[in-house]
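Hello forum,

I keep getting stuck at the same step: I have a sequence, I want structure tokens, and every attempt I make locally crashes halfway through. Rather than fight my setup again tonight, could one of you with a working pipeline run this one for me? It's a single chain of 186 residues.
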Amino acid sequence: MINVNDVKNGMTIEVDGNIYQVLETSHVKPGKGAAFAKMKLKNLRTGSIVEQTYNSSIKVAKAIIQRKPMQYLYSAGESYSFMDMNTYEQVELTSSQIGDDVKYLKENLEVSLIYFGDELIGISLPEKIDYVITHTEQAVKGNTSSGAQKDATLENGMTIKVPLFISEGESVIISTSDGKYVSRSK
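Reply #2:
Ran it on my machine without issues. Output:
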């Protein structure tokens, strides 16, 4: 058990049987009354984000999670296959176990499976992933105002906004945290 004052961003804690990753934490000492900690937590089982306030005297359990590096192989309907790159053992997950991260999967992508004890909680994607643009419109002459963007379809079928100078067949880097264009691939 650890005191809420010792909780840091990125830690995983267990509260009321739920496993949370701490996204943000701030300690508040009002002029009158007891100090408290405000936390923004992501439930690792459901993916929901909640904000909680805890008295500074409260203790929470630290959740020990393991990350196992795996490689995404293929999908068959609602089933997604991953392979351990050391033992070649294969694991199948459903789209409900993966959640919204399923839209970022592409063959041979290296991800981490997150385990709490023997329970598989979900997957952790790389922060940025390279994709090839399969379709985009040509830039229109005169449409060059600052920050102008156009729609582009990626190899995984996802549609994003990219700058006007990006063309079909180019490789771009996408952020998995918000699904937005970061830069061209080198």
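The CA atoms of residues 92 and 172 lie 29 Å apart. If your local run keeps crashing, start a new thread with the error log.
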